[in-house]
Here is the input.
Amino acid sequence: MPATPLAQPPATASRSRSAAPRRLMTAAAATLIVAAAMPVTLAHAAPSASVSPTTVAPGGRVALNVEGCGTKAARVTSTAFNEVRLTPGNLEATNLFGAATVFSNASPGAHRVTFECGGPGGQSVTVSLQVTPGAARGGTGGSIGSMSTTQIAVGGTLAAAALVGGVWVLRRRAAA
Here is the structure.
């Protein structure tokens, strides 16, 4: 068999292989130019804050949360409660949180709640907290204070009758 010379790749294939890295470098350079032209403010968007619940009675507790501060500390001020320092909720400090107790003598109506990232002079955002008229009832909700002796006796008698009936049913099943 006669030896055939090895086929040489066509000249056009060699040119297209060397053009691919140049096209890739051009695209990368264009991407870098566009990224450099973008405004820096996109990286540091305004923080967002929330108070939960948004409506509370005097003496109630609210949860405070702010995201997007870019700092590991924030403070919250309001006429409804004392100043609160927020702590990071994760390692990146993208979420800062805390809690506050509304003053027991807080006036009903809307109260401004101002979140300041990094403390005074930092980025700030303000939300509203609605304080409802009336005091928050805690503990047993006042249910014991309004019960009469007769109501307590009737309730106790019903509970005892239920207990005796339950024992009677269980003993009867065991005997059968």
Summary: The chain has two helices and eight strands.
